[in-house]
Amino acid sequence: MIGFKRDSKKDEEDGGGNPFQNLEKTTVLQEARTFNETPVNPRKCTQILTKILYILNQGEILGTVEATDTFFAMTKLFQSHDVILRRMVYLGIKELAPIAKDLFIVTSSLTTDMTGRENLYRAAAIRALCSITDGNTLQQSIERYMKQAIVDRNAAVSSAALVSSLHMTRFAGEVVKRWVNEAQEAINTDSIMVQYHALGVLYHIRKTDRLAVTKLVAKLTKSTMKSPYALCMLIRITCRLIEEDDVGTNSKLFEFVQSCLRHKSEMVIYEAAHAIVNMKKTGARELAPAVSVLQLFCSSSKPTLRFAAVRTLNKVAMTHPAAVTACNLDLESLITDANRSVATLAITTLLKTGAESSVDRLMKQISSFVSEISDEFKIVVVKAIRALCLKFPRKHSVLMNFLSAMLRDEGGLEYKASIADTIITIIEENPEAKETGLAHLCEFIEDCEHTSLAVRILHLLGKEGPRTKQPSRYIRFIYNRVILENAPVRAAAVSALAQFGALCADLLPNVKVLLARCQMDTDDEVRDRATYYSVILNCNDAVLNNRFIVENTHLSLPTLEKSLHQYTMQPSETPFDARTVPVAAISPSEEARLAAAEEISTKPKTAIATMTREETYAEKLRNIPQLAALGSPFHSSPAVDLTESETEYLVKCVKHVYERHLVFQFICTNTLNDQLLENVHVHLDPLPEGFVVAANIPCQRLPYGEAQSCFTVLTFPDVLAISVGSFGAVMKFSTKDCDPATGLPDSDDSYDDEYMLEDLDVSVADQMQKVAKANFAASWDEAGDENELEDVFALTSMQTLDEAVKNIIQFLGMQPCERSDRVQEGKSSHTLLLSGVFRGNHDVLVRAKLALSEGVTMQLAVRCSDPEVSELVTNSVG
Amino acid sequence: MEEVMLEPTLYTIKGMAILDNDGNRILAKYYDKNVFPTVTEQKAFEKNLFNKTHRADAEIIMLDGLTCVYRSNVDLFFYVMGSSFENELILMSVLNCLYDSISQILRKNVEKRVIMENLDIVMLAMDEICDGGIILEADSGNVVQRVALRADDIPLGEQTVAQVLQTAKEQLKWSLLK
Asked: How far is the C-alpha of A329 from the C-alpha of A462, rounded, in Å?
C-alpha cells in the first residue's frame, strides 16, 4: 500500500503536466484523424504530430499500412499556414519516409514551399523533399530548383541544398556530379556552414580524381577560408593527399597544415596538430611545433581540450617518446585530473616517456583510481604496462604484481583477456618473469569465470609448465580444474596434464593415475582425450609422445570439415586419408594483433571466426567446376601485382599450388569506363621447361570497375629440381566500345587486343606451407640424418644477422621455430630453425647456422623425407 | 592502425541524445546505420552511457568505440556522439550549440518539465543542428532563429519597438550573467 502511494506520487511529480507520459501507439494514431478536420486547428494538430514523432523516437515501430495512413493524414495539414505545424509536417515526412509508401504525392507541395517566399519553409522543405525523392524525380523535376538553391543567398537554404545533395549521392551520384559549378560558387560565400558543406560536396564529387583534388586543395589553401569546420575538412583532405602522393614534409601542402597550427580557432589548431602527429612521415623536427601547441592545451580549463591533447600526446609517445618528454611536467599535473580518462591517458603517456625510476610512483598513482575508470581505459593502462615491461625488463616484479591485482578485480572478458595477454607476452619475452607469471596465471584460473580465457591459460601451462624448474607445482592447479570446472575447461586441463606426462619422466606415473581418473568423466570429450593420452603415454615411446602429444596438428579446419563431409557422402572402402587435407598456415593475425594493440582503439571487437587467406580462396576455387576436381589447394600465395597501379587494366596474380598442379588466378580490373572486355585470358609464354598448360579458364565478361578472375592450370614437371622458374605473361581479350553511363556496348563490333604483363615467378616459398614445431629438436632427431643435405653458403650482400634471418625466412617461406627468428643483439652467430611442409605433404626441417664475418656465412642443413625436396631447397638458396 | 587517417567526410556526428535524470530517453537520434542499428541496442548504450556519466562531471568519455561529449543541467543530460577518431572539439562545438539553442528556446529553464512542454520546438532544433550525421548549423543563434519561437514568432520586422527592446535587454542581461 505504501509502495503504491509512493509510486503514484512519483508519477505525479514526473508526469505533472507531461502530456507524453504513457502514450499508446494505437491511441495516438487514432488521434491523427483530427488532421482531416477543416479548418485545421494548428495548435492541436502540432500537439498530436509531436506525440507521433515522440513515440517513434521512443522506439515504437509502425507497419507500412499504419505509416502510410498517418502519412496521408499528415498531407492534409499542408492547408494550414502555421509555421511550426508546417515544419513539424516536414519532420514527420522525413521520419516516415523509410516506411511509408506513395510518398511522391507531396512532391509538388514541397516543391512549392521550397521555391516560395517564406524563408522559414524553404530550407526545411528542401531537406524533406530530398528524403522522399528518387533518382528519376530528381533528374526530371527538381534538379533545376536544387541548382538554384545551392547558390541561394540565404545561408540556410544553400546549406540545406548542399547537405541534401551529399545525402543523395548515394542513389543519384551522377546527377549530383553535374552540380559541381554551383558548389564551386557556394564555396566562396561568407557563411561559415555553407563553405563547409560546399567543400564536402566538392570533395565527394571529385575524390576519385586525384588531379582535381590536388587543384582544389592548391586553390583553397591559398585563399583564407573563414569557416573553421571547412578548414578542418581541408586539413584532412590535404593529409590524405600528402600520404597518397608520398610527398615529403617540405612541400607546400605540409606547410599549409603547419600554418594551421597558428590559426585562431582551437578546433583548427588541434586538427592540424592531430594530423601532423598521425602522418606516417613526420620526424622529430616536424613534431615539435605540434607538440608544443598540445602542451598549451594541457593546461586549458576545458576538459575536452585537455582530453584531446593528452590523447594525441599519448599517440606521439608511442612513436616518438623523446618528443613528448618536454611535456612531462604538464602531464604530471594532469595525473590528478577530475576527468579520469584524462588522468589515465596522462599516466600512460608518462609511463611511455618516463624513466625507470618513476615507474613505481606512477604505478602507485594508477592503482589509487583504477577501479573508477571504464574498461576501455583499463585496457589502455594494461597496454601501457605491456610496453613498459618490454622496455624495462627489470621492473617486471612490480608490474606483474599490479597486473595480478587487476586480474583479481571485477572486469569484462575483453579486459581480462588483455591482462592475460600481457602476462603471456611478458612470460615469453622475459625468461626471468616466467615462473612468477605462471604462478599468477595459476592463481587466476582458480577463480576465472571466462571459459575461453581459462582454456587459453591451461594450454599455455601445458606448453610452458613442463620446461620450468619445478613442473610438479602446476599439476595441482591443473587437476583442480578437472575437478571443479565445466567440460571445455576440463578437456583443456586433460590435454595440459598429458603434456606434463610426455615431457617430464619423473611425473609420468602420477599423470597416468590422474588421467585414469579422468576417464570416468561425465563428458565425452574429456573422456576421449583422457583415453587417447593414456594409451599413448602407456606406450612409453618418445617418438609417439612427440608426434601426438607435444606437436599439434596443423590441418586447416574448415577444409578438413569439408573433406570429411564429402567422404561421408560417398561411402568407400578406403579409410579417410588426413594427408589429403592441406595444412593451415600460421595465421599472421597474431602478429598483427600485437602490432595493433598499441593503438588506443576502443572499438568493441566483433568475434568472427576468421578464415585464413587460403581457406577463403579454397572456398572460391571449389565453386569453379574445372578446378574443383583438383581438390583443395595446398598453398595460396598472396596476390602479386602484374601491372603498375595506374594503368588501363589492373592485373593481380595469386598462385595456388596443388599436389601436382599449379593454378594461376589472374584478378583483372578494367579501369576504362568506355570499354567492355570479353573472353579475357592470360597467355603464358615462355614456359619454363617441364611445365605444361593443362587448361585455361577465361573470364567471359569484364565490365568497367569490377574485379573478375580468369585461371590458367599447369601441371608441375615430374622432376622436382626444375619446378621453380619464371613465366612470361600476356593478357589477351576482345574489346567492345560501350556507353560510359550505362555500360552497355554501342555495337556488336569487337576487336582483339593484348596487354603485356610483368613476369611471374614460382619459387620454393610458393610450394611450401608454414608449420610450427613446438619441439624442434625432437622432430629433427625423428627425421634422422639419412635424408640430410648440408652445404655452406656465403651471403655477401647481407650486412647483419637480422637481415639475413629475415631474408632466409621470406625466401624459403617456412616457419621459424622456438623464437629463433629473433637475433640477440651483439651476437656474432645465430642458429635459425625453420620448419614447413612441401607440396605432397613432405615435412621439411631446416637448420641454418649463421655467422657474421664480412657479410654472413651460412651453414645450411635440410632434412626431409624426400631427398629431392632437400636438394631443391638447398639448390634454391645457392 | 584502422582508419587513423580520417576519410575526409562531412558525416561527423554518430548520434545525439537528451536523457532525463533516470537515464531514460527524452529524444535521441542516431545517424550511422552501423552504430546501434536497433532501438534496443541504442537504449542499452544510453543506459550504459548514463551510468558512466551522471555522477562525474567530466564532459567527455569514450565508450563502445565512440567519443561522447556531454553536459547536464538540473534533470537533463545532453550527449553528442562521434567516431573515436573524430576531432573532439568539433563534437564539443555541436554539443554547445545543442545546449545553448535549447536553453534559449526554453528561456533558460533547462529542465525536463519545460522541455516536455516545448518538445516540438526542441525536435525542430535538433533537426536544424544535424541532418543525417552532417553538422547543419553550429551557431545556436542561427538555430533558434530558424526554428521560429512560438510566443514571438512574429518576424523581427513586425515586432513593436518595445518588444525588440525587451528581447535585446534580456539577451544582454544573460550574456553579462554568463
From this structure: 46
At A270, which amino acid appears? Y
- Rounded Cα distance, A848 and A808, in Å: 9
Would you call B62 and A601 a contact, using CB atoms and an 8 Å cutoff? no
Higher pLDDT, B120 or A799: B120
Over range B70-76, report the average pLDDT. Answer: 88
What CA–CA distance (Å, rounded) separates A76 from A96? 15
Q: Which of A304, A305, A311 to mutate to test the interface with B (most CBs of B within 10 A)?
A: A304
For A284-307, the pLDDT digits (tens) are 778 888 888 998 888 888 889 999
Query: Scanning the structure block, which residue is given the C-alpha cell 556530379?
Result: A177
Whole-number Cα distances in Å, A169 to A148, A155, A176, A456: 18, 21, 6, 48
Instruction: Give the dihedral sign, CA A9/A14/A17/A23.
Output: negative
Does position B154 have pLDDT exceeding 80, yes or no? no
Evaluate if residue B159 carries a pLDDT over 60: no
User: What distances in angstroms separate CA A674 from CA A435, A669, A705, one per listed residue?
Assistant: 67, 14, 11
Best probe of the B interface among A12, A45, A49, A84, by most B CBs < 10 A, is A84
A566 pLDDT above the threshold of 90: no
Q: Three-state DSSP class for B154?
A: coil
What is the DSSP secondary-structure string of A498-541? Answer: HHHHHH-GGGHHHHHHHHHHHTT-SSHHHHHHHHHHHHHHHHT-
Question: A123, B113: Cβ pair inside 8 Å?
Answer: no
Whether residue B134 and residue A163 make contact (CB cut-off 8 A), yes or no, is yes
Taking an 8 Å cut-off on Cβ atoms, the answer to whether B10 and A197 are in contact is: yes
Residue A435 predicted with pLDDT over 90: no
Taking the CA atoms of residue A325, residue A331, residue A335 and residue A340 in that order, the dihedral angle to the nearest 10 degrees is -120
Report the distance separating Cα A585 and Cα A590, nearest Å: 12
Contact (CB, 8 A) for A162 and A127: no
Nearest chain B CA: its distance from A217 CA (Å): 13
Exposure pattern of A756-767 as b/e (b: 16+ CB <10 Å)?
A: ebeebebbbbbb
> Do B10 and A200 make contact, defined as CB atoms within 8 angstroms?
yes
Cross-strand pairs, A836: A770, A844
Contact call for residues A211 and A200 (beta carbons, < 8 A): no
Burial class of residue B8 in the structure, from the number of CB atoms within 10 Å of its CB (0-12 exposed, 13-18 middle, 19+ buried):
buried
User: Which residues make Cβ contacts (< 8 Å) with residue A621, sequence separation at least 6?
Assistant: A627, A628, A632, A633, A656, A663, A665
What is the gyration radius of the CA atoms in chain A, in angstroms? 34
* pLDDT for the residue numbered B177: 64
Q: What mean pLDDT is predicted for residues A528-539?
A: 87
What is the structure's pLDDT at A11? 43
DSSP state of B67: E
pLDDT of residue A844: 85
A90, A129, A166, A373: best mutation site toward chain B, by most B Cβ within 10 Å? A166
> Is pLDDT above 70 for B164?
no
Please tell me the distance from the alpha carbon of residue A94 to that of residue A77, in angstroms, as a whole number. 15
Amino acid letter, residue A436: T
Question: Residue A830: beta bridge partners?
Answer: A850
DSSP letter, residue A704 = B
Q: Are A676 and A699 in contact (CB under 8 A)?
A: no
Q: Which residue of B1, B5, B89 is in closest CB contact with A308?
A: B89
b or e along A701-740 (b: 16 or more beta carbons within 10 Å of the residue's beta carbon)? ebbbeeebbbbbbbebbeebeebbbebebebebebbebee
Residue B80: all three cell numbers together: 553528442
* Interatomic CA distance for residues A638 and A588, integer angstroms: 12
Per-residue cell: A512: 597416468
Cα distance between residue A790 and residue A794, in whole Å = 14
Contact assignment for A156 to B137 by CB distance below 8 Å: yes
Nearest CA among A289, A293, A287, A329 for reference residue A308: A293
